[in-house]
């Protein structure tokens, strides 16, 4: 027996019939072909399947597809298309903060969520924020470097935008 | 010309992964594809009395259920022995357990269904009646005469044993001023690649062709395995390894499940997909290590190391892995002991024992971490016994940088290493004198920090003496086809493979420099037996050293072809021309003569305009096998700084240092990240990772919630420096680097923990060094101090 799920995935309304037990990860990967979301443990420990559900990172392996009813889901494919993580991706690339690439989507989700709540995290704070993201290849340091560099650049951009707006206000 | 070799070129293929566009086997869905799930033995040892599949066969979506009687006859059994391991035994293995089950997790039935969920539902309905027997799970007593056998098809639990010794080893011990010794235990751990093992086998009965999409590092090896074990012509077997989500040696072994997927596809004539779930990975991926080592070291009064004697008992599974065996690890353990040191005498004994657990076999840095940890822990004890500090005793004993070539006490031939330079560089980086001052100050406040160092050698660029000599069909050579496209762009198809370490990037850099183009103009194809030449692919750190040299030589042959053709076109002696900036230029002045795209245009579309007899073939194939030394050894040294909480036993890893010499560095960005990743893969088993079994042979922590892998928050920053000693065996001069980090990280960390605990007289000799084991060591030391 299948049930209909209405949700918005990467900005596009989606209506699909799914089995009630289907995980959001299986729904994204198998039904929608969004294979950028990966499965590493299927028990919420490794972080490879992290996606944004209504803006917050969730383990797509632990959330049922039906729980996305009426919600909005963003995957690495969507965040790439909108350019929301373009700076993170560039810094990951510069720093070679990925090897096999299997953890990368989840790392980007955790990094994006961290930088949204803490614009300029310390290295310890970054390492702490990645405590649910397993990477076997890199040893993590390059990932920490890439996130720190992105945080610094975003903070500087915000600061200069604020300064510009303060100047404008002062001029007025 | 080395414009691009040596540059920190970014990985082009990383862009796909960053955009979520990786193409992994686990992403693949083919028309008519079936999903395979295995029913596994819940017991570690026993006899199968009955398998009832009737209820399961009625489950929705189920197409077929196989047991051994249906499936195994399709596959020739495999035997994991090598001829050069004299006296080695291992019983044959086939896909599904036929009579005996040999470990908890041994596949006994295979279900094919329209979805994985349906296959899993049906698996629950299969009734397997097993008369259980007492499993063999213990240590040394398994080798005593009359001990119960792990595998009734073997004549004892001894898979393999060997002894290495120099004639004067007993005299060295007899005459030594000091003999230090210790017993060590190194736990089992496993690879935990983030993408589990994955295979989609696709047999087309119409053409007789088998295509296997396989997440492996060695596609050609599997092409050969599938052809031979399933009786197919090799030319009808194609193995494609697309993006692979981590491998680390774990994905080059033959596994029951992959063979099962192929057999099922051959029988059913449709694609069969098997992707291990994480729980299955823990009970079917190879495990690693599992050694008990007793080690002794003979030392002169001045701290000169005279000899070592080690006895390594390593426990594997109930059969040896195929085709590389489960004995290669132990073999490397006893041959790498004492390798960085001048030490003239040695005795090493190895016993490899069967038991009813998951097979152990090659995993990143095969044998190295064990040999390094034992050697370096004994060096620390020798330093203590002779009043040397850790740097001083190593300076006294490391093979001198000007004393090459050198043959180790275990028979390894070293072309040229740089231990002394590495030691000096590490000393500058760590500043041990400052660390000692800080350590003393902190101890007065009840804070216990320690540092430890560990020298190492790493085996890279292995030749045919590694496996080929033992009869294994494992290639020591690699092949490349390099061609110039009509546009003047370059394509290289090569047998070394990519799992994220950057193989394709370094091959592009190497080829680019031979042909005077930017690496961006070189596209590289890997991982498909139908489109790339046969070769060994990636294992034992051979991608850069052997694959890179293959690409270099192929590139130079194409260069010569292009210059010959260009000579005919511009009417110049090819010897006066060279390639640079995407063009043929005058060798002396650098003045452009003709662009590559113009040569490509003429050779492809207007060969009629060429002078008669001019060869316009712009494709070359070249194969290269290592010559000269049997291996190109690398060397280095690592340092670790830790803080031990003596109340909780928790260890904070504060800092890690590596000085490494991998010869010519092709890409420093990628080399450093190989080292960092390797270090963390060495620190994991030193502190966290352990496959814990109970006496019944049940893995009790086989999930990612229970098995502790190193995470970002626990890992230190890792500072890296390099010494470059290129090998003279090749033009390129590159050696391997992938295993260096793993080789010595745990050894340095163990020395660091023991340095921190020195005021208590406590000493760890078992990994992982868990909080409980640290507290036990503190407790034991306390009891010893307060004993009457």
TrEMBL record, chain A:
Residues 1-79 form the 2Fe-2S ferredoxin-type domain. PROSITE patterns: 2FE2S_FER_1 (PS00197), 2FE2S_FER_2 (PS51085). InterPro entries: 2Fe-2S-bd, 2Fe-2S-bd_dom_sf, 2Fe-2S_ferredoxin-like_sf, 2Fe-2S_ferredoxin-type, 2Fe2S_fd_BS, Beta-grasp_dom_sf, Diverse_Oxidoreductases. GO terms for molecular function: 2 iron, 2 sulfur cluster binding; metal ion binding; oxidoreductase activity. Keywords: 2Fe-2S, Iron, Iron-sulfur, Metal-binding, Oxidoreductase. The keyword Cell membrane does not apply. The keyword Transcription does not apply. PANTHER family: OXIDOREDUCTASE WITH IRON-SULFUR SUBUNIT, XANTHINE DEHYDROGENASE IRON-SULFUR-BINDING SUBUNIT XDHC-RELATED. This is Carbon-monoxide dehydrogenase small subunit. It comes from Primorskyibacter flagellatus.
From TrEMBL, chain B:
The keyword Oxidoreductase applies. SUPFAM superfamilies: CO dehydrogenase molybdoprotein N-domain-like, Molybdenum cofactor-binding domain. Pfam families: Ald_Xan_dh_C, MoCoBD_1, MoCoBD_2. It comes from the Bacteria. InterPro entries: Ald_Oxase/Xan_DH_a/b, Ald_Oxase/Xan_DH_a/b_sf, Ald_Oxase/xanthine_DH-like, AldOxase/xan_DH_MoCoBD1, AldOxase/xan_DH_MoCoBD2, AldOxase/xan_DH_Mopterin-bd_sf. SMART domains: Ald_Xan_dh_C (SM01008). Coiled coil: none annotated. Residues 19-134 form the Aldehyde oxidase/xanthine dehydrogenase a/b hammerhead domain. PANTHER family: ALDEHYDE OXIDASE 1-RELATED (PTHR11908:SF132), XANTHINE DEHYDROGENASE (PTHR11908). This is Xanthine dehydrogenase, molybdenum binding subunit apoprotein.
